[in-house]
Amino acid sequence: MKPNFVLITVDQMRADCLSALGHPIIETPNLDQLTREGVTFTHAFSAVPTCIPAKTAILTGLSQRTHGRVGFKDKVPWNYECTLPGELAKAGYHTQSVGKMHVYPRRTLCGFHNVVLHNGHSHINPNKDAFAEALESYDDYLPWLRERAGSHRELQENGLGTSDSAMTRTWHLSEELHPTNWAVTQSIDFLRRRDPRKPFFLWLSFVRPHPPLDPPQYYFDLYAHEKLPPPVIGDWADQEDAAGGGLDPAVTRGIVRSERRLQRAMAAYYALITHIDQQIGRFRKAMSDYGVDKDTVILFASDHGDMLGDHHMFKKTVPYEGSVHVPFILADPGNRLGIKRGGKDDHPIELRDIMPTFLDAAGVAIPPAVEGKSLLPLARREEVQWRSYIHGEHAHKDRSHHYVTDGREKYIWYSQTGEEQYFDMANDPREQTNLSSRSEYAARLAHWRSLLIRELEGREEGYSDGEKLIVGCTPQTGLQAILG
């Protein structure tokens, strides 16, 4: 039988938050075990570092230029002809999604046979325009929680919200009712209910460590009293915070002047990741109990990261490492694919490579429209011609930007101001020194700028005429020629 596939994604996890990669504080023993059973891709990026575009890349294997989502915009219908679960279903796989999909309409199957949903908006007022539908029409976690807890116990009542990046409060109910536990409970139930005559594809999609920062008390206590390493602040970062953004409870950029508040936020963020790690261990135990552990390939990744105070920034959307650099592990516990387990690969890869990798592993033809590439040759350490860089971007009003990187160098262009940044990532992996104004790097700056000029040529926004970058064009969150 063909191998089973489990795609585990988390929302807003930084690439450096793995103890196997040398993080000085965080504990991720189950993810560390995946690194031993597979290949860790150390230069994996989210091309558009926010939820919807990232998940579009995962499900379609397309670049943002083709799928059209170049910023965050909800309630745009998903009308993609080819999807990862759809192609696997056609090849005889039983396909299931559990957790966050963030598609529209919200019950769109995208090729799955069944979806069990929780998009993390349980605390949003359902009367607001963006979420006018009845909660139960697009969320399966809330009715489940009501049956067990007696009420929603809305998170908003605890002073937390999904946008809050530095506000922390531990989970207010018993741990088994947490959304992280729920996602694993539902995934284990799928193992029980699946068609045993077919191989399966399960997408286990966690909402955390995306805020609200609400870990169960046990996990918060693991980090609450540790002296956590401070965020890194580049010499180019805003040191004034004249607008007082750091005083905002829902801070996105600015100087958080309370070190205790920042330390609590970091402790809660790490706690949410360790909580997920332990629940992954629980799921893997269930896989063993059901006898599928050695027949299943597991891919772990995040849709984007979180700045977590680096350069006085929080959340995602920005082009810096905390936001765009993501963890990415391809594990093969049963050695079904012949990959070189326990190794690392530093080729630049992106979330659009997930779809062709699974299809290749299943022996399923990769649709011609797919722009990602199978990672199996890299995982097997075969000689292969690979892309030389990744192009990323995010439309975000006056901070709209584009970046190009190979993991060793990075060029950033802010489209509304023309500001450029260049980082020598090989020697400055935390982007502390902007080298764009130094004459000795002029040739490298020109090289990377020319790549971006080529990437943007012909785009409807008008950012490039093929010879130069054009400042001040109106940014769009979605390409109208594709999304309408």
Q: How big is the Rg?
A: 21 Å
Q: What is the count of distinct domains?
A: 2
Q: What fraction of the residues are assigned to beta strands by DSSP?
A: 5-15%
Query: What does the overall shape look like?
Result: globular
CATH topology of the largest domain: Alkaline Phosphatase, subunit A
Question: What are the segments in which pLDDT stays under 50 over at least 5 consecutive residues?
Answer: 123-132
Please state how the strands of the largest beta sheet are arranged side by side: 5-4-6-1-7-8-2-9
Contiguous helical run count: 13
CATH superfamily of the largest domain: Alkaline Phosphatase, subunit A
Protein described:
With 484 residues, the protein is an alpha/beta fold. The chain folds into 2 domains: 4-379, Alkaline Phosphatase, subunit A (3-Layer(aba) Sandwich); 395-483, Arylsulfatase, C-terminal domain (2-Layer Sandwich). It is built from 13 helices and 14 strands. It has helices spanning 29-36, 51-60, 64-67, 84-90, 141-149, 179-193, 217-223, 259-289, 321-324, 354-362, 376-379, 442-456, 480-483; strands at residues 4-11, 38-41, 44-45, 94-99, 114-117, 200-209, 296-302, 328-331, 343-345, 349-350, 390-394, 401-405, 409-414, 420-424. An 8-stranded mixed β-sheet has the order 5-4-6-1-7-8-2-9, sandwiched between helices. Strand 13 (409-414) and strand 14 (420-424) form a beta hairpin. Helix 7 packs across helix 8 (259-289). The longest helix is centred in the middle third of the chain and has 31 residues, at 259-289. Mean pLDDT is 93; it is low at 123-132.
